[in-house]
Design a protein that fits this description.
The protein is of the alpha+beta class. It has one domain: Heat Shock Protein 90. The protein contains four helices and five strands, in the order βααββααββ. A five-stranded antiparallel sheet has the order 1-2-3-5-4. Strand 4 and strand 5 form a beta hairpin. The protein binds adenosine-5'-diphosphate (ADP) and magnesium ion. Magnesium ion (MG) binds next to helix 2.
Length: 148
Amino acid sequence: MTDTSGSVTASLPIRTDMDLAWVRQHVRQAAAGLGFGLVDQTKLVTAASELARNTLVHGGGGQVESTVLGAGAARGLRLTFSDEGPGIPDVERALGDGYTSGGGLGLGLGGARRLVHEFSIDSRPGEGTAVTVVCWTAGAPRQREESR
Ligand SMILES: Nc1ncnc2c1ncn2[C@@H]1O[C@H](COP(=O)(O)OP(=O)(O)O)[C@@H](O)[C@H]1O
Ligand SMILES: [Mg+2]
């Protein structure tokens, strides 16, 4: 039996630069607590840091919800970054390396996707954006979901 439903274990605001630091700390602690190794912790923290910054800078602020998942012996951490900002008109373009709508390096979204096991974007112009990522502990299902 596989149970990937999970339940929200934390919801953190993303409104200020200080909040970005709290998000990084939360993700590091949650990943360590689930038994992720140092390298995997750092991958997830790096992805979370980029996505949280996008929520703040491009989305005008929002929140992240963190959920612990179980699938057999494996454990996972799911993070959903959401905002009610302008949305992303062309998601494929935004995922491309080097694309920025202003001022950035344009590596955050595509980079984050490469650092996690599952990645999806739900974005509606004028309504907002939700980016969900999942990382599993070793031995876990490694299917890549790149839907949106
Ligand atoms: N939460 C968001 N809301 C609106 N647009 C976003 C959001 N996240 C990313 N984007 C868009 O995707 C582009 C690429 O994001 P990213 O790769 O992180 O590059 P950067 O942040 O350096 O511009 C951004 O420039 C922006 O146009
Ligand atoms: Mg970015």
